[in-house]
Write a structure and sequence with these properties.
Blueprint: H1 17-34, E1 44-51, E2 63-66, E3 78-82, H2 92-101, E4 106-111, H3 112-118, H4 122-131, E5 134-138, H5 145-149, H6 151-154, E6 162-164, H7 171-179, E7 181-184, E8 191-198, H8 203-218, E9 228-234, E10 241-245, H9 255-272, H10 274-291
Parallel strand pairs: 3-4, 3-5, 5-6
Antiparallel strand pairs: 1-8, 1-9, 2-7, 9-10
Length: 292
């Protein structure tokens, strides 16, 4: 009988949870001291990934990284864009029955044909984007959406529709997977930003999400840990705190100087997203006041 070959052990993580915990505590302490008016509000915690090299292939759809603590609240408003072409077997009646029977939090269903006809202008697309927290898309039409939705959606990577397979019966499982995951978009550059927590979570919950996100991201990026230059953690308006940095190589893309430029660029990019985040906070507050 031939001897079986044991599977190689998984690569040892280079992330120290203690470093993550210190960064999370520092960010929460900074927020409470610098912005006391926002203590009772909720905002995202971001993980900034910097790669050593630009990914060889661009990918429009984001990778889903499972997290132990869901990012999206129960009040999340989903919009589903579906294929209503002749080759599709979907009807509005069928979709509504499936949503109701599986208790799926989809607030709006939008036909591909209606998307093309009713949302032609930039302003129409912007209003659509701001009306819902997250967008889902029939995986058969994903390649058609960049032209239909335009730059307003795809520049703001967190609003890119997440593909779902409507040919499967378990729609709720797929939507739950979106709620319970961080979304990683590897862009045409070396940097990506991933939402990994909310300030309404406990510090330890954020730490656990960060650790899970890092481990999941490392499995996706080219060369795994060998392809990662750094991970930083930040809030919308805070400094980016390092939680992992590879040994600096002065000969690689400018070494330490390049690293500082990357973080500076990410801080600038995060400020550009402030308007959208503030709109989300205002929307949440309106909902809370209405409930009271």
């Amino acid at each position: 009988m031939a001897a079986t070959t044991a599977a190689p052990p998984p690569p040892k993580s280079k992330l120290n949870p203690k470093t993550v915990r210190k960064a999370v505590n520092a960010l929460l302490k900074w927020r409470n001291s610098e912005n006391p008016d926002l203590v009772d509000s909720d905002e995202f915690t971001y993980l900034v990934l910097t790669l050593n090299k630009i990914p060889p292939k661009s990918r429009v759809n984001a990778f889903k990284i499972p997290l132990p603590h869901p990012l999206l609240p129960e009040s999340t408003q989903f919009c589903l864009i579906y294929d209503d072409r002749r080759t599709s077997n979907l009807t509005m009646d069928l979709i509504q029955k499936r949503i109701k029977s599986q208790n799926i939090p989809i607030a709006k269903t939008l036909k591909l044909s209606k998307l093309k006809s009713d949302y032609k202008s930039f302003e129409d697309k912007r209003k659509l984007m701001e009306s819902y927290d997250c967008f889902l898309a029939d995986n058969r039409i994903v390649e058609l959406l960049p032209r239909c939705l335009g730059k307003v959606f795809y520049k703001n990577k967190r609003m890119i529709p997440v593909p779902v397979d409507l040919g499967k019966k378990d729609w709720k499982g797929q939507v739950d997977s979106v709620i319970e995951s961080a979304m990683l978009s590897l862009s045409s550059g070396t940097c990506s930003v991933v939402r990994v927590g909310r300030t309404s979570m406990s510090g330890e919950e954020i730490v656990e999400n960060v650790v899970a996100a890092v481990e999941g991201i490392v499995e996706i990026v080219p060369r795994k840990w060998g392809g990662v230059r750094s991970f930083h953690l930040k809030l919308l308006e805070s400094f980016a705190l390092p939680v992992y940095q590879a040994v600096p190589d002065e000969t690689m893309e400018g070494g330490k100087g390049r690293e500082r430029e990357v973080v500076k660029d990410e801080n600038k990019d995060m400020k550009e997203k402030r308007k959208g985040e503030e709109a989300e906070l205002k929307k949440a507050k309106r909902g809370k006041n209405a409930a009271e």
